[in-house]
Protein backbone atom coordinates (compact mmCIF):
# COMPACT_ATOMS: atom_id res chain seq x y z
CA UNK A 1 0.00 0.00 0.00
CA UNK A 2 1.41 3.40 -1.02
CA UNK A 3 1.41 6.30 1.40
CA UNK A 4 2.10 9.88 0.36
CA UNK A 5 5.84 9.71 1.13
CA UNK A 6 6.39 6.57 -0.95
CA UNK A 7 4.32 8.00 -3.81
CA UNK A 8 6.39 11.20 -3.74
CA UNK A 9 9.63 9.23 -4.04
CA UNK A 10 8.24 7.23 -6.94
CA UNK A 11 7.50 10.49 -8.72
CA UNK A 12 11.04 11.73 -8.04
CA UNK A 13 12.52 8.49 -9.36
CA UNK A 14 10.30 8.65 -12.42
CA UNK A 15 11.31 12.16 -13.43
CA UNK A 16 14.99 11.94 -12.57
CA UNK A 17 16.09 8.73 -14.20
CA UNK A 18 18.69 7.41 -13.82
CA UNK A 19 18.88 8.09 -10.07
CA UNK A 20 21.42 6.18 -8.02
CA UNK A 21 21.04 5.16 -4.39
CA UNK A 22 23.93 7.40 -3.45
CA UNK A 23 21.97 10.41 -4.76
CA UNK A 24 19.18 9.97 -2.20
CA UNK A 25 19.48 12.46 0.69
CA UNK A 26 19.11 9.85 3.43
CA UNK A 27 21.66 7.33 2.07
CA UNK A 28 24.67 8.85 3.86
CA UNK A 29 22.82 8.57 7.16
CA UNK A 30 21.81 4.95 6.47
CA UNK A 31 25.35 4.00 5.47
CA UNK A 32 26.79 5.66 8.57
CA UNK A 33 24.32 3.81 10.80
CA UNK A 34 25.09 0.51 9.05
CA UNK A 35 28.83 1.07 9.57
CA UNK A 36 28.38 1.82 13.27
CA UNK A 37 26.11 -1.21 13.65
CA UNK A 38 28.62 -3.51 11.93
CA UNK A 39 31.43 -2.21 14.12
CA UNK A 40 29.38 -2.63 17.31
CA UNK A 41 28.54 -6.22 16.38
CA UNK A 42 32.15 -7.01 15.40
CA UNK A 43 33.54 -5.65 18.68
CA UNK A 44 30.86 -7.47 20.71
CA UNK A 45 31.89 -10.87 19.38
CA UNK A 46 35.61 -10.19 18.93
CA UNK A 47 38.00 -12.64 20.55
CA UNK A 48 41.53 -11.50 21.37
CA UNK A 49 42.73 -14.79 22.86
CA UNK A 50 45.10 -15.31 19.92
CA UNK A 51 46.93 -12.02 20.45
CA UNK A 52 50.56 -12.12 21.52
CA UNK A 53 53.10 -9.31 21.82
CA UNK A 54 56.77 -9.51 22.71
CA UNK A 55 60.03 -7.58 22.46
CA UNK A 56 63.62 -8.35 23.32
CA UNK A 57 64.92 -7.17 26.70
CA UNK A 58 67.91 -5.80 24.77
CA UNK A 59 65.75 -3.77 22.38
CA UNK A 60 66.85 -0.23 21.64
CA UNK A 61 64.68 2.87 21.50
CA UNK A 62 62.60 2.95 18.32
CA UNK A 63 62.40 -0.83 17.89
CA UNK A 64 58.94 -2.27 17.25
CA UNK A 65 57.13 -4.84 19.35
CA UNK A 66 56.45 -8.13 17.57
CA UNK A 67 52.68 -8.33 17.10
CA UNK A 68 50.16 -5.58 16.40
CA UNK A 69 46.57 -4.59 17.08
CA UNK A 70 44.21 -5.79 14.38
CA UNK A 71 40.73 -4.25 14.18
CA UNK A 72 38.01 -6.95 14.08
CA UNK A 73 36.45 -5.37 10.99
CA UNK A 74 39.64 -5.44 8.92
CA UNK A 75 38.07 -8.15 6.79
CA UNK A 76 35.52 -5.50 5.71
CA UNK A 77 37.69 -2.38 5.36
CA UNK A 78 34.94 -0.48 3.55
CA UNK A 79 33.07 -0.37 6.88
CA UNK A 80 35.99 1.12 8.81
CA UNK A 81 35.64 4.84 9.42
CA UNK A 82 38.66 7.04 8.75
CA UNK A 83 38.07 8.53 12.21
CA UNK A 84 38.90 5.26 13.99
CA UNK A 85 42.24 5.08 15.75
CA UNK A 86 43.99 3.51 18.73
CA UNK A 87 45.48 5.33 21.71
CA UNK A 88 47.19 4.30 24.93
CA UNK A 89 44.80 5.13 27.76
CA UNK A 90 45.24 8.63 29.13
CA UNK A 91 47.32 8.88 32.29
CA UNK A 92 49.05 5.52 31.86
CA UNK A 93 52.81 5.42 32.21
CA UNK A 94 54.14 3.09 29.52
CA UNK A 95 57.58 2.56 27.99
CA UNK A 96 55.85 2.09 24.63
CA UNK A 97 54.38 4.41 22.03
CA UNK A 98 51.40 3.39 19.91
CA UNK A 99 51.34 4.22 16.20
CA UNK A 100 48.30 3.75 13.97
CA UNK A 101 48.82 2.20 10.55
CA UNK A 102 46.50 1.92 7.54
CA UNK A 103 47.30 -0.34 4.60
CA UNK A 104 46.37 0.34 0.97
CA UNK A 105 42.91 -1.17 1.58
CA UNK A 106 42.17 1.02 4.58
CA UNK A 107 42.57 -1.69 7.23
CA UNK A 108 43.49 -0.41 10.68
CA UNK A 109 46.42 -1.69 12.75
CA UNK A 110 48.22 -0.51 15.87
CA UNK A 111 51.99 -0.93 16.28
CA UNK A 112 53.87 -0.53 19.55
CA UNK A 113 57.32 1.08 19.55
CA UNK A 114 59.81 1.28 22.40
CA UNK A 115 60.03 4.93 23.48
CA UNK A 116 63.26 6.89 23.45
CA UNK A 117 63.84 6.92 27.21
CA UNK A 118 62.65 3.40 28.03
CA UNK A 119 64.66 0.82 29.95
CA UNK A 120 63.13 -2.66 29.90
CA UNK A 121 63.27 -5.50 32.42
CA UNK A 122 62.24 -9.10 31.92
CA UNK A 123 58.54 -9.69 32.54
CA UNK A 124 55.11 -8.60 31.38
CA UNK A 125 54.00 -5.04 30.69
CA UNK A 126 50.23 -4.45 30.67
CA UNK A 127 49.13 -1.63 28.37
CA UNK A 128 45.59 -0.20 28.42
CA UNK A 129 44.50 0.57 24.86
CA UNK A 130 41.50 2.63 23.76
CA UNK A 131 39.86 2.44 20.34
CA UNK A 132 38.32 5.80 19.50
CA UNK A 133 36.06 7.20 16.82
CA UNK A 134 37.30 10.76 16.69
CA UNK A 135 37.39 11.69 20.38
CA UNK A 136 34.70 9.18 21.39
CA UNK A 137 35.91 5.97 23.08
CA UNK A 138 34.53 2.86 21.39
CA UNK A 139 36.40 0.07 23.15
CA UNK A 140 38.93 -0.18 25.97
CA UNK A 141 41.00 -3.24 26.81
CA UNK A 142 44.37 -4.21 28.22
CA UNK A 143 47.00 -6.06 26.23
CA UNK A 144 50.19 -7.62 27.59
CA UNK A 145 53.63 -7.04 26.06
CA UNK A 146 56.11 -9.75 27.04
CA UNK A 147 59.73 -8.69 27.47
CA UNK A 148 61.86 -11.75 26.70
CA UNK A 149 65.40 -12.84 25.88
CA UNK A 150 64.28 -14.15 22.48
CA UNK A 151 61.11 -13.09 20.68
CA UNK A 152 58.86 -15.59 18.93
CA UNK A 153 59.85 -14.07 15.60
CA UNK A 154 63.57 -14.44 16.37
CA UNK A 155 63.02 -18.08 17.32
CA UNK A 156 61.07 -18.77 14.13
CA UNK A 157 63.74 -17.05 12.04
CA UNK A 158 66.51 -19.02 13.77
CA UNK A 159 64.80 -22.34 13.09
CA UNK A 160 64.03 -21.42 9.50
CA UNK A 161 67.63 -20.38 8.86
CA UNK A 162 68.87 -23.61 10.44
CA UNK A 163 66.67 -25.59 8.06
CA UNK A 164 67.82 -23.46 5.15
CA UNK A 165 71.49 -24.02 5.91
CA UNK A 166 70.93 -27.79 6.01
CA UNK A 167 69.25 -27.83 2.58
CA UNK A 168 71.63 -26.97 -0.22
CA UNK A 169 68.86 -26.71 -2.81
CA UNK A 170 67.40 -23.72 -1.00
CA UNK A 171 70.71 -21.88 -0.86
CA UNK A 172 71.32 -21.47 -4.55
CA UNK A 173 74.47 -22.20 -6.54
CA UNK A 174 76.76 -19.28 -5.63
CA UNK A 175 78.48 -17.66 -2.67
CA UNK A 176 79.80 -14.19 -3.44
CA UNK A 177 82.64 -12.19 -1.97
CA UNK A 178 82.00 -8.64 -0.81
CA UNK A 179 83.77 -7.36 -3.92
CA UNK A 180 81.49 -9.38 -6.20
CA UNK A 181 78.44 -8.19 -4.28
CA UNK A 182 79.56 -4.59 -4.77
CA UNK A 183 79.82 -5.20 -8.51
CA UNK A 184 76.33 -6.72 -8.65
CA UNK A 185 74.82 -3.82 -6.71
CA UNK A 186 76.26 -1.43 -9.28
CA UNK A 187 75.06 -3.64 -12.15
CA UNK A 188 71.51 -3.91 -10.83
CA UNK A 189 71.30 -0.19 -10.17
CA UNK A 190 72.59 0.62 -13.65
CA UNK A 191 70.17 -1.84 -15.31
CA UNK A 192 67.05 -1.10 -13.26
CA UNK A 193 67.18 -4.51 -11.57
CA UNK A 194 68.39 -6.63 -14.52
CA UNK A 195 71.56 -8.72 -14.74
CA UNK A 196 73.81 -8.24 -17.74
CA UNK A 197 73.55 -10.53 -20.75
CA UNK A 198 70.03 -11.91 -20.23
CA UNK A 199 67.51 -11.49 -23.00
CA UNK A 200 64.33 -12.28 -21.06
CA UNK A 201 64.48 -8.93 -19.24
CA UNK A 202 63.81 -7.19 -22.54
CA UNK A 203 60.97 -9.41 -23.79
CA UNK A 204 57.68 -7.51 -23.90
CA UNK A 205 55.32 -10.36 -24.72
CA UNK A 206 55.08 -14.13 -25.20
CA UNK A 207 56.22 -13.98 -28.83
CA UNK A 208 59.45 -12.27 -27.80
CA UNK A 209 59.97 -14.85 -25.04
CA UNK A 210 59.53 -17.58 -27.67
CA UNK A 211 62.24 -15.93 -29.76
CA UNK A 212 64.71 -16.62 -26.95
CA UNK A 213 63.91 -20.36 -27.28
CA UNK A 214 62.60 -22.48 -24.37
CA UNK A 215 65.90 -24.09 -23.39
CA UNK A 216 67.77 -20.77 -23.25
CA UNK A 217 64.92 -19.00 -21.45
CA UNK A 218 64.91 -21.70 -18.77
CA UNK A 219 68.66 -21.32 -18.28
CA UNK A 220 68.40 -17.54 -18.00
CA UNK A 221 65.54 -17.69 -15.48
CA UNK A 222 67.38 -20.22 -13.34
CA UNK A 223 70.64 -18.27 -13.46
CA UNK A 224 68.95 -15.00 -12.51
CA UNK A 225 67.07 -16.74 -9.66
CA UNK A 226 70.32 -18.21 -8.35
CA UNK A 227 72.08 -14.87 -8.51
CA UNK A 228 69.27 -13.10 -6.66
CA UNK A 229 69.27 -15.91 -4.10
CA UNK A 230 73.03 -15.66 -3.60
CA UNK A 231 72.80 -11.90 -3.01
CA UNK A 232 70.04 -12.45 -0.44
CA UNK A 233 72.13 -15.14 1.26
CA UNK A 234 74.96 -12.62 1.60
CA UNK A 235 72.80 -10.70 4.07
CA UNK A 236 73.45 -13.53 6.55
CA UNK A 237 77.24 -13.88 6.29
CA UNK A 238 78.88 -10.90 4.55
CA UNK A 239 81.25 -8.79 6.66
CA UNK A 240 80.23 -5.68 4.73
CA UNK A 241 76.57 -6.33 3.89
CA UNK A 242 75.49 -8.83 6.57
CA UNK A 243 74.08 -8.43 10.07
CA UNK A 244 77.47 -7.49 11.46
CA UNK A 245 78.10 -4.85 8.80
CA UNK A 246 77.02 -1.22 8.57
CA UNK A 247 73.28 -0.60 8.28
CA UNK A 248 73.87 1.70 5.29
CA UNK A 249 75.72 -1.03 3.35
CA UNK A 250 73.06 -3.59 4.18
CA UNK A 251 70.37 -1.20 2.94
CA UNK A 252 72.24 -0.70 -0.33
CA UNK A 253 72.16 -4.44 -0.99
CA UNK A 254 68.51 -4.74 0.03
CA UNK A 255 67.54 -1.88 -2.30
CA UNK A 256 69.34 -3.59 -5.19
CA UNK A 257 67.57 -6.85 -4.31
CA UNK A 258 64.16 -5.15 -4.38
CA UNK A 259 64.91 -3.92 -7.89
CA UNK A 260 66.12 -7.37 -8.98
CA UNK A 261 63.06 -9.17 -7.60
CA UNK A 262 60.66 -6.65 -9.14
CA UNK A 263 62.31 -6.87 -12.57
CA UNK A 264 62.50 -10.67 -12.45
CA UNK A 265 58.86 -11.22 -11.50
CA UNK A 266 57.70 -8.66 -14.08
CA UNK A 267 59.25 -10.74 -16.89
CA UNK A 268 58.67 -14.24 -15.54
CA UNK A 269 56.21 -16.18 -17.81
CA UNK A 270 53.72 -16.75 -15.01
CA UNK A 271 50.48 -16.49 -17.01
CA UNK A 272 49.01 -19.99 -17.55
CA UNK A 273 52.39 -21.35 -16.45
CA UNK A 274 51.31 -25.01 -16.65
CA UNK A 275 50.72 -24.62 -20.38
CA UNK A 276 53.26 -21.98 -21.36
CA UNK A 277 55.04 -22.72 -24.66
CA UNK A 278 57.93 -20.47 -23.66
CA UNK A 279 59.61 -23.11 -21.46
CA UNK A 280 60.51 -26.76 -21.91
CA UNK A 281 58.12 -29.28 -20.38
CA UNK A 282 60.59 -30.42 -17.71
CA UNK A 283 60.93 -26.81 -16.52
CA UNK A 284 57.17 -26.45 -16.15
CA UNK A 285 56.85 -29.71 -14.22
CA UNK A 286 59.87 -28.89 -12.02
CA UNK A 287 58.94 -25.33 -11.08
CA UNK A 288 60.75 -25.75 -7.76
CA UNK A 289 63.87 -24.82 -9.74
CA UNK A 290 62.54 -21.28 -9.64
CA UNK A 291 60.39 -21.21 -6.50
CA UNK A 292 62.64 -22.91 -3.92
CA UNK A 293 65.20 -20.18 -4.38
CA UNK A 294 62.65 -17.59 -3.23
CA UNK A 295 62.50 -19.13 0.27
CA UNK A 296 65.72 -17.38 1.23
CA UNK A 297 64.40 -14.07 -0.07
CA UNK A 298 61.49 -14.33 2.37
CA UNK A 299 63.82 -15.02 5.27
Count of individual beta strands: 7
Oligomer: single chain
Q: What percentage of the residues does DSSP assign to strands (E)?
A: 15-25%
The rounded Rg comes to 27 Å
Can you offer a commentary on this structure?
The protein is of the alpha+beta class and 299 residues long. Helices cover 42% and strands 18% of the residues. The chain is built from 11 helices and 7 strands. Helix 5 (178-190) packs across helix 8 (247-267), helix 6 (206-212) crosses helix 7 (214-237) and helix 7 (214-237) runs antiparallel to helix 8. The longest helix is centred in the last third of the chain and has 24 residues, at 214-237. It is globular and about 65 Å long. The termini are far apart.
List the helices and strands and how they pair.
Elements: H1 4-15, H2 27-45, E1 53-56, E2 64-70, E3 84-88, E4 96-102, E5 108-114, E6 123-133, E7 136-148, H3 152-165, H4 168-171, H5 178-190, H6 206-212, H7 214-237, H8 247-267, H9 281-284, H10 288-291, H11 294-298
Parallel strand pairs: 1-7
Antiparallel strand pairs: 2-5, 3-6, 4-5, 6-7
Helix pairs in contact: 5-8, 6-7, 7-8
Keywords, separated by commas or semicolons:
alpha+beta, four-stranded mixed β-sheet, three-stranded antiparallel β-sheet, globular
Short description:
42% of the residues lie in helices and 18% in strands.
